[in-house]
Amino acid sequence: MTTSVLCTSCGARNRAAMGHCRRCRAPLSGNVLAGNATMRGTPTSEVIDERWATIGPAKGMGQGWFEGRDVATGQKVLVRELRETDFAGVSGEELVELARKRQEVGGGGVLKVLAVSEQENRVLQVYSTTDGQPLSQLLEHSGGLPLSVALHLFQDVVTGVDALHDHGLVHQTVEPRMVWLCNEGRSGMPQALLAGGGGAFGAAAETADYRQLAGLLAHMIIGKAVVDFDGAGEAIGAAIHNVTRQCGEKVASGLRGIFDMLVRTDGDVPARRRRVIEEAIHFLGIGDENSMVAVPRGPFLRGSEADDSDCRPEEIPSAMIDVGAFFIDRTPVTIRQYRRYLEALQKEPCAGWEAVNDGDQDRPVVFVTWQEASDFARWMGKRLPTEAEWEKAARGTDGRSFPWGNEPPDTQRAWFDGKDGPEPVGKRRDGQSTFGALDMAGNVFEWVFDWFDPHYYENSPLSNPTGPDEGEKKVLRGGSFAHPAFALRCATRGRYEPMERRTNHSFRCVWSIRREDK
User: Fold this and answer.
1) Burial class for 488, CB neighbours closer than 10 Å (0-12, 13-18, 19+)
2) How far apart (Å, rounded) are the C-alpha atoms in residues 205 and 130?
3) What is the pLDDT of residues 68-84, one digit of tens each?
4) From CA 321, how far away is CA 275, in angstroms rounded?
């Protein structure tokens, strides 16, 4: 262990023999903390190779994992301790070789190993990390993930496992605690990266990794720990049951195909197995009413300028608003989806609901209150979008007036202007937003999370606004089949009392790592 001290002026760690802080140049004599403390009083066990300071156990990642930081830059890292006694039949030299081989694995799907330190009876790996948490922590607090989100993150993990295999390594513990969930990684969206790995490669071990992937996917869907990751049969059955209830038999059948490919043991060519899994995930991600589209973190232009002849006072002033990453339903919730919810919970719809929700089940569900929309979203593991999230998903980042651009609505792009009722979702493909969301102008008016306040934009937060703390009416967005063209503008703000029902009121859902539970 390297003896070190912390400067109380700036918090930098220094070698004990130094007279002045290497960062702020303050005298260190009488201006230091003990070598096993930090400025915040958190125990620090050691400094590795005079560069990486361990801070304490990494929450949720299990034995042998520690939080740390670069003493020069303050960059957060993860430190993994490998001991010969934990690897049966592996010598010290072989352990070092495997650790260094893992350092060569880069690209998508894995946490990068920055350094390997050889020490007596053990090897230390230092991993680069970003703002985030182990997937196990997210699942512990949120339960299962919506299928589209689970598949998005699962594809990252599959990529990570394949990267290890391509380098002649296996993982051996593909579990949620070994998946580091970056809050906003690749392209501004949540990203799952594998920590650990580095076991000796072999056909049996490769097959075991894929079977563990099946257990991981089941855990992500049902939100419950899978005890036996080599089998996970009961959890797989529960995951398929959940998806059948929420998404229907067609989607469940596609998911069953992914599980079958993961758990097979017939020595199928790895490249073919990967391709089949990727194709199945792609189909489930975009091919049905349950799909969601990704909206990366970043700013967008909210509201309207005062010289816009169509704007209303509550849309002013316009401002650049920063919104965190989220996923939003590609289309409004359909009658078919809402019926599954009613049947699963044995709920009876209100009087009059059946009369306006009969016929084509691909039409948006209507005649629902704000609370009913919120309850459905929660059942799906989602929530209603904030006003800002909805407007960004519809408008994109270039300040356009409508989801498709600045051209006025027409029948190729939107269903509006005094039509008799809603049409099946997703028919007007020319009207999709830059993020791929459909029906965000016309067809149905959509409930969002926020209370309405005509003056809210005047003092709104510029980052992730969630609306006033209270109010009398909730906001609706997007216009509907009954509205004229100006109401289809992305900036238009409608409002109704939350318990009101209308034959043009519907909703769609979102999911994000952060929650808006105000």
Assistant:
1) buried
2) 29
3) 999 888 899 999 998 87
4) 39
pLDDT of residue 219: 93
Distance from chain centroid for Cα 397: 20
Q: What is the DSSP annotation of 6-71?
A: EETTT--EEETT-SB-TTT--B-TT-EE-TT--TT------EETTTEEEEEE-TTS-TTEEEEEET
- CB neighbours of residue 316 within 10 Å: 18
Give CA–CA dist 381/147, Å, rounded.
Answer: 9
Q: How far apart are CA 498 and CA 299, in angstroms?
A: 29
DSSP secondary structure string, 70-107? ETTT--EEEEEEEEGGGSTT--HHHHHHHHHHHHT--S
CA–CA separation, 72 and 70 (whole Å): 5
Q: Are 102 and 126 in contact (CB under 8 A)?
A: no
Q: Which of 478, 468, 470 is nearest to 416 (CA)?
A: 478
Neighbours of 252 (CB within 10 A): 20
Work out whether strand 52-57 and strand 47-48 pair parallel, antiparallel, or are unpaired. antiparallel
| Helix/strand/coil for 458 | helix
Categorise residue 499: left if φ over 0, alpha if ψ from -120 to 50, beta otherwise.
Answer: alpha
Q: Do the Cβ atoms of 365 and 501 come closer than 8 Å?
A: no
The strand pair at 191-194 and 179-182 is best described as antiparallel
For residue 421 the two structure tokens come to 């009722």
Which amino acid type is present at position 43?
A: P
- Residue 37 pLDDT > 50: no
Q: How far apart are CA 32 and CA 34, in angstroms?
A: 7
% of the chain surpassing 70 pLDDT: 88
> Does residue 293 contact residue 439 with C-beta atoms inside 8 Å?
no
Instruction: Indicate the DSSP class of residue 364.
Output: B
Position 234 scores a pLDDT of 84
CA–CA distance, 460 with 444 (Å, rounded to integer): 27
Task: Give the span between the Cα atoms of 4 and 47, in whole angstroms.
Answer: 8
DSSP 142-183: H-SPPHHHHHHHHHHHHHHHHHHHHTTEE-S--SGGGEEEET
Q: Which residues does residue 192 pair with via DSSP β-bridges, in sequence order?
A: 181
**DSSP state, residue 328:** E
CB 459 within 8 A of CB 484: no
499 within 8 A of 450, measured Cβ to Cβ: no
- Cα 148 from Cα 190, distance rounded (Å): 13
Say yes or no to pLDDT of 110 above 70. Answer: yes
Q: What is the CA radius of gyration of the chain?
A: 26
Q: Give the pLDDT confidence of 265-317 residue by residue, as tens digits.
A: 666 656 666 777 777 777 666 556 789 999 999 999 999 999 888 999 999 99
What is the rounded CA–CA span in Å between residue 390 and residue 385? 6
